[in-house]
Design brief:
Layout lengths: L3 H13 L12 H12 L7 H5 L3 E3 L6 E12 L5 E11 L3 E3 L3 H10 L2 E2 L1 H16 L3 E10 H4 L10 E8 H4 L1 H10 L22
Parallel strand pairs: 2-5
Antiparallel strand pairs: 1-4, 2-3, 3-6, 6-7
The protein binds zinc ion (ZN).
The site of zinc ion has 7 residues, from loops.
């Protein structure tokens, strides 16, 4: 999938930016960037089932399971710049649970791709729904986008907040509020599907 063609492209990119790809500091840059991009997009080659399948357990437990403050790092597909922040996940089991340690790995599978935050949020929620058919699943992601912060677009410290609420979290405001309180969200966010605030511009 990756060939030396990628290094040639990066070398060309450096030259197009006005750099000298042969100067000492840049000689190995194409190799490093290729390795870096390969890692940052390794989610395309990861298999969700391999990540979680040996960690699905049948249990007699029907209370809300919450994993909060999961760090994630992803790449904005519009600018190829990082966006990163915290992800909070909750679900109410029906008959199955996912091993807790697998949940951050699931976030990595979808974060390590070119993404928009809304799709990333939905993919995580839908995957949990598909794999364990819970009573409900909720995912909230709060992120800083470097394409906004570094380019001085809008407020540099603004966060983009996205959420996906499925099943009981969509249908029951009480369940949703319990989750949002537990992750210390602000009252303004308790109205259901949360507004996406300060998303980066798509054009440009
Ligand atoms: Zn962007």
């Amino acid at each position: 999938m990756y060939t030396s063609g990628m290094r040639d492209l990066i070398r060309k990119l450096l030259a197009d930016l006005g750099e000298d790809p042969d100067r000492e500091g840049l000689v190995d840059t194409p190799k490093r960037v290729e390795a870096s991009l390969k890692f940052l997009t390794s989610g395309y080659r990861a298999e969700v089932d391999k990540v979680i399948n040996n960690a699905l357990f049948t249990v007699d437990y029907s209370e809300m399971v919450i994993v909060k403050d999961i760090d994630f790092f992803s790449m904005c597909e519009h600018h190829l710049l990082p966006f990163f922040g915290k992800c909070h996940i909750a679900y109410i089991p029906n008959t199955k649970v996912i091993g807790l340690s697998k949940i951050p790995r699931l976030v990595d599978v979808f974060s390590r791709r070119l993404q928009v935050q809304e799709r990333l949020t939905n993919q995580i929620a839908q995957t949990i729904e598909e794999k364990i058919q819970p009573v409900g699943v909720a995912v909230v992601m709060e992120a800083t986008h470097l394409c906004m912060a570094m380019r001085g677009v809008e407020k540099q410290r603004s966060f983009a907040v996205t959420s996906a609420m499925l099943g009981a979290f969509r249908n029951s405001s009480r369940t949703r509020m319990e989750f949002l309180e537990l992750i210390n969200q602000r009252p303004a966010m308790m109205g259901g599907m949360l507004p996406v605030t300060g998303m980066h511009p798509v054009e440009e």
